């Protein structure tokens, strides 16, 4: 198939592009390479896919990779670009779109709300319109466990009511789910929303806890432990996430309204302090801990009900000790620690 992957220079988008290419699909990766975190990491991911920094810096120009037998092109573009994005859809005639591009980060959305509306709402509308007008068979898009807000449920299910987001980031992701349903209902193309639960692993985001903690500990700085450590997360290793996306890709929703919403998580939450212990164990270093109150927009716990995805064959199989070790091995090599 020919597949568009937005956010291709991002953490999940990079891993997905790599996997799709290895399986023989033709992939066009799209990203605006914004400076929300270190752009050099984004350029390094693209370099792994065979696209040089020099080529990746060119706006709205297809840069071709020669690393894979299947074709990979990279295009630097904003999702909210109402001129060039529709033209890209028209020119390429994608079979499937995987929209992983978005402005990420719960806390950052409190400081920079406009960026989230531009990328996550206006940009997502442009993606939906591109799919509608160009006969795309299936749209997969990134939602988030953040939509559950301060849910009191023991396990988060897609059937839960999620009408009270506590960050603008979560509100934009909830809006994506509503918009996708509307387009599936009106125009009949398949959409699948993927509620990701705390994804981690090699090439991960520098604003995430694993990256922040590892960097601080190796630099002999204290780590910030919010809510005094009384937090738990459904930490999900990147390989399990990509496996879940592949399963959804191979099983598009059907019916009068071909719409699906699913959690992709580990299904077994771990306490934040156990996660820190796994980092310390892999590094063989003990971190200095600074215990702090809860941050605005954050939640104390997440726990994914993955039963619907498991019916399609999904199973998260990577424990935190193994996953954390893989990340730290990569971190040491990449940053020459």
From TrEMBL:
Highest taxon, organism lineage: Bacteria
InterPro entries in the cross-refs: Epimerase_deHydtase, NAD(P)-bd_dom_sf
Pfam families for this protein: Epimerase
Domain spans labelled NAD-dependent epimerase/dehydratase: 3-256
Sorted UniProt keywords: NAD
Chain coiled-coil ranges: none
PANTHER family linked: EPIMERASE-RELATED (PTHR43574)
Record-given protein name: NAD-dependent epimerase
């Amino acid at each position: 198939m020919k597949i568009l992957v937005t956010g291709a220079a991002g953490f999940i988008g990079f891993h997905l592009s790599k996997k799709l290419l290895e399986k023989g699909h033709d992939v066009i990766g799209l990203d605006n390479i914004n400076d929300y975190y270190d752009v050099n990491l984004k350029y390094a991911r693209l370099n792994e896919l065979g696209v040089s920094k020099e080529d990746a810096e060119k706006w709205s120009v297809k840069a071709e990779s020669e690393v894979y037998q299947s074709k990979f092109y990279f295009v630097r573009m904003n999702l909210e670009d109402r001129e060039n994005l529709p033209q890209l859809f028209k020119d390429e005639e994608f079979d499937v779109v995987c929209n992983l591009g978005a402005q990420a980060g719960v806390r950052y959305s409190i400081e920079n709300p406009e960026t989230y509306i531009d990328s996550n709402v206006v940009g997502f509308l442009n993606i939906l319109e591109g799919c509608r007008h160009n006969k795309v068979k299936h749209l997969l898009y990134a939602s988030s466990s953040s939509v559950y807000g301060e849910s009191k449920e023991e396990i988060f299910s897609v059937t839960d009511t999620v009408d009270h987001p506590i960050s603008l980031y979560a509100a934009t992701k909830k809006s994506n789910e509503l918009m996708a349903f509307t387009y599936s209902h009106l125009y009949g193309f398949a959409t699948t929303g993927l509620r990701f639960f705390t994804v981690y692993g090699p090439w991960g985001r520098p604003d995430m806890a694993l990256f922040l903690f590892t960097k601080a500990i190796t630099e002999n700085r204290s780590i910030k432990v919010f809510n005094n450590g009384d937090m738990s997360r459904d930490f999900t290793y990147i390989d399990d996430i990509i496996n879940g996306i592949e399963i959804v890709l191979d099983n598009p929703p059907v019916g009068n309204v071909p719409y699906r919403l699913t959690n992709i998580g580990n299904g077994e939450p771990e306490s934040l302090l156990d996660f820190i212990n796994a980092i310390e164990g892999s590094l063989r270093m003990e971190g200095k801990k600074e215990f702090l109150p809860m941050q605005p927009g954050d939640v104390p716990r997440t726990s994914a009900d993955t039963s619907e995805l498991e019916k399609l064959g999904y199973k998260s199989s990577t424990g935190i000790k193994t996953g954390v070790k893989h990340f730290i091995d990569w971190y040491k090599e990449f940053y020459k620690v």
